[in-house]
Write a structure and sequence with these properties.
Blueprint: H1 5-15, E1 19-23, E2 30-34, H2 69-74, H3 77-92, H4 121-132
Antiparallel strand pairs: 1-2
Length: about 140
């Protein structure tokens, strides 16, 4: 996509040496190329009018999706839900073997994060309630 000269200048001003801009031969339109390790901030498109963005369904079972019992006992349910959502997104985009992505980029160059400001509620319960009752703690809470 080509942009106006003013937009290209704004990208350059905001990102300095991390951005290349040049005028195209298409009549006053410019191209912008973000160089390696450029930080890109994407503004939120919608205003949030809810305090809870999503909930894991009460009867949701991660083992139904092939997550082993030993993993579900160690990890918070939200972590398992995020794992299943990631796999579904990859499969729906046509990627059935995530390792094929390594042919396009090095794993150290890409990251993704899912979380909340306070962590999974079941993990919090595990930390406070179970430690108070001298029960064992899951390994993912510390």
């Amino acid at each position: 996509k080509y942009v106006k000269a003013s937009e290209a200048a704004t990208f350059k001003a905001q990102n300095g040496g991390s951005v290349d801009i040049w005028e195209n031969s298409t009549g006053g339109l410019w191209s912008v190329r973000f160089l390696k390790s450029t930080l890109i901030s994407v503004p939120m498109a919608l205003q949030a009018n809810r305090l809870v963005a999503a909930l894991v369904p009460t009867d949701w079972d991660p083992q139904r999706y092939g997550i082993p019992d030993d993993v579900t006992k160690k990890a918070d349910i939200v972590t398992c839900f995020a794992l299943v959502a990631t796999v579904k997104a990859l499969v729906r985009s046509g990627i059935t073997d995530p390792y094929e992505l390594y042919q396009c980029f090095h794993i150290s160059e890409v990251s993704n994060t899912t979380g909340s400001g306070q962590g999974g509620s079941r993990s919090l319960q595990n930390i406070f309630k179970n430690s108070f009752l001298d029960k064992s703690l899951k390994s993912d809470v510390f």
